[in-house]
Amino acid sequence: MSPPLMESSASTLVIYPASQPQQEPKNENNGGIVFGSNLQQMQGEMPKEFLWPSRDLVDTTQEELKEPLVDLAIFKNGDEKAIANAAELVRTACLKHGFFQVINHGVDPDLIDAAYHEIDSIFKLPLSKKMGAKRKPGGVSGYSGAHADRYSSKLPWKETFSFLYDHQSFSNSQIVDNFKSVLGEDLQHTGRVYQKYCEAMKDLSLVIMELLAISLGVDRGHYRRFFEDGDSIMRCNYYPPCNSANLTLGTGPHTDPTSLTILHQDQVGGLEVFVDNKWFAVRPRSEALVINIGDTFMALSNGRYKSCLHRALVNTYRERRSLVYFVCPREDKIVRPPDNLLCRNEERKYPDFTWSNLFEFTQKHYRADVATLQSFIEWQQCSNSKSKPSNF
Ligand SMILES: O=C(O)CCC(=O)C(=O)O
């Protein structure tokens, strides 16, 4: 029987030998590697740029994490006892690993389906079109093929398309306009779907902020107010099937530098979370949304809540997709824990910083990994730029 690999008609990874003349666009830093279309057969031997060290690949158990499933219907019912119980579940999970899932979250399942459908509209575009929408150096928006224009080793086996969502925008077409200008009129409908998706994510994120505040015992509206005028980031991930899935990763081990991540993965599975020195698989649940704490929220909780260490595996036979909404504060907001969170004489774990500084650090100086926040704090404290830590 032929492998189900052939099911995939979406774009796949293509390697161009550096010496071979190319019709396709070539990136600046890593001349040999770009993503292309319908050329899976060229995959051949795994290119070294995609090989990950064995320490990042080991322990691929299929043991599932027993993370809490938090039912958000309680917010509609206004049942304070149920809300307190949910907050306790969230607190336990965030103190331990920073990860939980929510159900009855109010996001229309048809909207989630439509958002998946539109992932295909983006990644099945011709390579030239995608490269025309390529993310600019230091920026976050646009198309990226394996981040090959930024890094030359440990490349993730995936394509991404990212865009910003301003929580406060008066325009109800900010994303539609962005898609039209970056990918053309044909992608207007895709923009409309993601406009709605981001609006739903923003609303949900504020409910979760309220739950987090309750769980930390601070003013219930504190984080909601802090993020109301945020500038979030939406990312569509497309992971092509990979002949050597055991040698590479779709997304390497990292914590998110952002505040809170709301993720939906398709039924293929591959998301893993690191808990008690072990990687655990996260079971795909179509009705649930995955929530994880990021570095900025860890700072906002004075280190009480853990920024979740996670990664994504690729599949030998099946393409995989995920929809990721990274909640971020407005860029100039000062990140500091609320006063009433700090117990008397409790030391601040992290000095004040702005999201724009941390963001710049991760875009220009540091590849997000397990130590991003600590490295950023050291970087900020170094007055001499030459001694600033960097892992590029
Ligand atoms: O695709 C996934 O499940 C994880 C994605 C992720 O961690 C990321 O895009 O930062």
TrEMBL record:
Keywords: Iron, Metal-binding, Oxidoreductase. GO terms for molecular function: gibberellin 20-oxidase activity; metal ion binding. It comes from the Eukaryota. PROSITE patterns: FE2OG_OXY. Residues 229-329 form the Fe2OG dioxygenase domain. Its cofactor is L-ascorbate. InterPro entries: DIOX_N, IPNS-like_FE2OG_OXY, IPNS-like_sf, Iron_ascorbate_oxido_reductase, Oxoglu/Fe-dep_dioxygenase_dom. One of its GO terms (biological process) is unidimensional cell growth. SUPFAM superfamilies: Clavaminate synthase-like. Pathway: Plant hormone biosynthesis; gibberellin biosynthesis; Hormone biosynthesis. It catalyses: gibberellin A12 + 2 2-oxoglutarate + 3 O2 + H(+) = gibberellin A9 + 2 succinate + 3 CO2 + 2 H2O. Belongs to the iron/ascorbate-dependent oxidoreductase family. GA20OX subfamily. This is Fe2OG dioxygenase domain-containing protein. It comes from Glycine max.
